[in-house]
Amino acid sequence: MMIRLSSGIAANPRFQLNPFFNPQKPTSLHAQIVPLRRKNFSKIGDGDAFDAVAYESERLSLDAAAMENMAETARKEIESDQETDPKAWKWIIRKKMWDLMEARNYAMNPRPVHHRIPNFVGAPAAAAKLAELDAFRTANVVKVNPDSPQKQIRFLTLSGEKKLLTPQPRLRTGFFSVLESDFLKPDTIREACTSVGVAKYGRAIGLDEKIKVDLIVIGSVAVNPQTGARLGKGEGFAELEYGMLRYMGAIDDSTPVVTTVHDCQLVDDIPLEKLAIHDVPVDIICTPTRVIFTNTPIPKPQGIYWDKLSPEKLQQIRILRELKRRLEKETGCKLPTGPSEKLPPTADRKRR
């Protein structure tokens, strides 16, 4: 049974995107980028011991600031005119889902789940369903989001002797980290599935890394099983990560995108006609009770859409700034910038 969360927002049942429709090309070009030089927190024994307590304390502090800002953004969006604000409908659905999960006690720690990819009762069971997929069994490299409900998927990836590709928190310190079970002791695999463990044991990569990702796992706040339309927590990192992997040539339209959610997160009121060109649809949904193949008609993003990226977001993510500078230098053309937005001060992570 699907849940309708939004009030006065419904997809037209007659509306369908042409599955053969190709979206306009992004206003940028692919380039091989030299990886950024930064302090590598994952190396231990070179005179710079990893301080896990300090790392986690700072991460939690920055995440709290981000969530506080997102809460304020959500409040303003929800109170705005839905007819003139293109993002208001998304925040209405998110808030009702977060409220629902807390009220029915479907939520798991960290709580409250508001402004997070919500952890949920049965997340390990949903991960087990995902692990049974042919797409997972045959994958060599799996990209998994760093959120709590997907922790078991990260563990199954590493314990299954696959490479785990996971983004660094909110892309603050770089791009992605790669972890391989061959370089981990059996008793450290669980730790390697946490944000601290990724920083401690992962190998940071840049945009010139030659890697092929066989499966993408992303978190969701709500997802439509009939169309594959998905809502995240509202910061757009899944879309940025997807776009940069496209530029690297690491993924293409055929790369499966999977999400794991509680059954209550299945909704039927994400209107296709209101989705943005950069929104990432999902091909497969795994819940604690079932597996759903969406056969999504929604085209997948083709890269970074610079005209949708705010100057504030660009300023906070160093690797995006580097990519944009190099593309502009190589092409001799200035890339567009999207409208301004208010963001929390989470990008400038102190060097140790």
TrEMBL record:
<dbReference type="InterPro" id="IPR037171">
    <property type="entry name" value="NagB/RpiA_transferase-like"/>
</dbReference>
<dbReference type="Pfam" id="PF01812">
    <property type="entry name" value="5-FTHF_cyc-lig"/>
</dbReference>
<protein>
    <recommendedName>
        <fullName>5-formyltetrahydrofolate cyclo-ligase</fullName>
    </recommendedName>
</protein>
<feature type="coiled-coil region">
    <location>
        <begin position="57"/>
        <end position="84"/>
    </location>
</feature>
<keyword id="KW-0175">Coiled coil</keyword>
<dbReference type="InterPro" id="IPR002698">
    <property type="entry name" value="FTHF_cligase"/>
</dbReference>
<dbReference type="InterPro" id="IPR024185">
    <property type="entry name" value="FTHF_cligase-like_sf"/>
</dbReference>
<feature type="region of interest" description="Disordered">
    <location>
        <begin position="330"/>
        <end position="352"/>
    </location>
</feature>
<dbReference type="GO" id="GO:0005737">
    <property type="term" value="C:cytoplasm"/>
</dbReference>
